[in-house]
User: What shape does this take?
Amino acid sequence: EVQLQASGGGLVQVGGSLRLSCATSGVSFDSYTIGWFRQAPGKEREGVSCSDSGTYYADSVKGRFTISSDSAENMVYLQMNSLKPDDTAVYYCAVLPYGSDCFQPVDIAYWGQGTQVTVSS
Assistant: This one.
C-alpha cells in the first residue's frame, strides 16, 4: 500500500527557509515520478517540483527550491529558500505515473495529507 506523510510546514517570515519532508512507503522511486504540489486559498493546485530521471521546477520556484530524495530511507524532501508570501499554500507530496508532466493538469495517483506553509510579510 502506498502511503505518504508530509511534514515540516510552518509559519516563516519573508526570506526564510523551510525543509518539507515526505515519508513514503510502498513507493519505488525508480518506477514513479515523485513530487510536490501546492494549493493556495482560492487558487488551483499547481506543480512545484517533480523528480524522475531528472528534476523539474515551476518557474516561480526555480533557483529557490530543491527537490531531493533518499531511497534508502524512503524519504522525499523539498528545501525551500528565500520564501515569498506567494509561496503560502498547503504543500502535498505526491506520486504520479512515471514521466508525468507536473506542470500541466495531471491526475495524481497518490498524495499525502499536506502541510501548511505560511510566509508572512
